[in-house]
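User:
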Amino acid sequence: MKEKLYEIPLNDAMDAGEECPFCFLERKAEQELMDFVLGSCASYMESDTRAATDQEGFCRTHQKKMFDYGNALGNGWILKTYYKKLLKEMKEEFNHFAPQKISLKDRLMKKSGNENSIREWVTSKEKTCYICDRFSKRYERYVATFFHLYKNDSAFREKLTNSKGFCFHHFGDLCSGADQYLGDGERKEFYSVLFQLMEENMERMSGDIDWFIEKYDYLNRDADWKQSKDAVQRGMQKIRGGYPADPVYKMK
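Assistant: Predicted structure:
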């Protein structure tokens, strides 16, 4: 079957042979978005990109990663226009704010501040992130493509069967995706494959961690590490996703 352009990322991720192909896709997409925002193409100087970053901002995680990325001037330009928009909005919120009366009963029940309009505004600002929001849309397409390939490509199904499974986080997403993209008969078959894959690979990971610990016993100091030398970081990834041992991603 001839590979279509939108299928390439999924096949590349499966071919990488890592603990979770969706973690692989997530890291690659995040790095591409960082390169787009702060890299050599200087998107931060484009008015449409700056308008979007001014509107959405960045979450705490991605602000730290952007700082570590290394483009101080690019970060400065992004902050420059973001602050101007934020200050304008903040002054408008302050002008329309009126403290509400809080009854003694509400104070005793610790309800004070729940209806605070300033707090609601701050919360709304913290819910958006330029990088998270764009990856979320890309991720939805990845999941849809995964099930498209599972249904239509026998080679992809074979890759899945021979893979190392998924991290626990992305495993949950695939369970939800199966209910959305597969019919009743297809779901039954898929869950059988997926559950066996997860069980085998979680047991493999548990065994790797066991041997990693055993290697610190002086009786095993000359024994082979087997597959356990990086068991801690892989074990962390298998539970929560991501790449705990990754170095900081920096501007090339």
